[in-house]
Write a structure and sequence with these properties.
Layout: E1 22-29, H1 30-41, H2 50-61, E2 63-75, H3 81-96, E3 100-114, E4 120-128, H4 131-144, E5 150-154, H5 160-174, E6 179-185, E7 200-204, H6 206-211
Parallel strand pairs: 1-2, 1-5, 2-3, 5-6, 6-7
Antiparallel strand pairs: 3-4
């Protein structure tokens, strides 16, 4: 089961009483979630069932998920045909399930790294651009329009620490209770056990992760 917010990281604003029904919107950085699960549990496929996972976490905290928004980079067909078609099918199913999907192209570029023995080697990596900015804009939009009381981020990206401060500023202006939390897998291989600064940290263990797998997904 996910562990509760870490001590010292409860950041709901208390300018007014918490609403009896707490509406949550899940904002999922798909590649960040996959990378954390890969490190934590050794998984090789992004087969998390994000609808089930969002609702399971929300149920643990007494929240009602009113919307799920999923963001990911997708490789171009010419760069990786198998993965391109896998993601295309996966995202089609998510949309059919009512998830709001936003994609950006994964760009290939060459990167130089220095090894422990001093050698400098060239690697080809894939990068997505604009996902973090899109998530932040969508969060601010939802909060400003009072569409949720809880922002549930599936990410450990510390760039969102500034977003957390902005959410609290908006809450103060609106004189209402708002919580922002970051959820992420933690397991034997985890190298980063911190959530986003300025949010509640919700750690996802392997039992919960495995219980929410989307069994329709398999890598071709």
């Amino acid at each position: 089961m996910p562990q509760g917010p870490q001590r010292g990281y409860s950041f709901s604003l208390t300018v007014s009483a918490a609403p009896a029904a707490k509406r949550a919107i899940a904002f999922v950085d798909g590649q960040n979630l996959f990378a954390a699960a890969r490190d934590a549990f050794g998984i090789t496929t992004a087969s998390y069932g994000i609808t089930a996972l969002s609702r399971a976490i929300a149920a643990q905290h007494g929240w009602d998920v009113v919307e799920i928004r999923f963001y990911t980079g997708v490789p171009h067909r010419r760069d990786n045909p198998g993965l391109h078609f896998w993601w295309t099918a996966r995202l089609r199913r998510l949309r059919a399930d009512g998830v709001v999907v936003t994609t950006r192209p994964l760009r290939r570029r060459r990167k130089y790294v220095r090894l422990g023995d001093g050698r400098r080697v060239e690697l080809e990596v894939s990068e997505e651009k604009g996902i973090d900015v899109r998530i932040a804009l969508d969060v601010v939009h939802a909060v400003l329009r009072r569409r949720c009381d809880v922002v549930l981020l599936f990410s450990q990206d510390q760039d969102f620490a500034e977003l957390a401060r902005e959410v609290r500023r908006i809450a103060a202006q609106q004189r209402r209770w708002i919580k922002i939390a970051s959820a992420y897998p933690v397991g034997p291989g985890t190298r980063n056990s911190r959530g986003v600064d300025g949010t509640d940290w919700i750690r996802i263990d392997q039992g919960l992760y495995d219980a929410c797998l989307d069994t329709r997904d398999s890598r071709p």
